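quick one before i forget lol
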Amino acid sequence: MNIIPTKIPDVKIIELDVFGDERGFFCETFNEEKFASAGLPTDWKQDNHSASVKGVLRGLHFQLLPKPMAKLVRCTKGKVFDVAVDLRKSSPTYLQWVGVELSAENKKMLLIPEGFAHGFYTLEDCDFLYKCSNVYVKELDANVRFDDPAFGVAWPLQGAPVLSNRDAAAPAFSELDLPF
């Protein structure tokens, strides 16, 4: 397992050790001892799986205090452009973002810390898996516009993205008063 810091040091790309032969492949996606020794979170509370067709944009989502949510994400089918935006007011990387291509082929994972908004755009039909550091709490669930100029995320859009009603109606960042 190779852990690569991004331009936002708290966001990490995790390259897996993949062992393959004519039968297929094997890779370890989580090992509590290895994660702990690398200073990564180990106390995951919930696993999620979503499937999306090409052109879907999900996000930018986050969970508020007192149960903010870190995520460990990966794409097991297809390809996505995955984004993490730092919403922590005290952070030197406040309002900066990182975008990483995750795919079934490259088998990379992205660690998104608590206090970050998260979203992804499907470059191909995909299956997307993520571990969460807290359970989902509907009353604490929040989102912000994916195209908010406060962040300036350079999404690799191929036409207008397909959005949920919730994401299409997401508030602007300037309308939020976040406790991070």
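fyi The helical segments are 32-37, 165-168.
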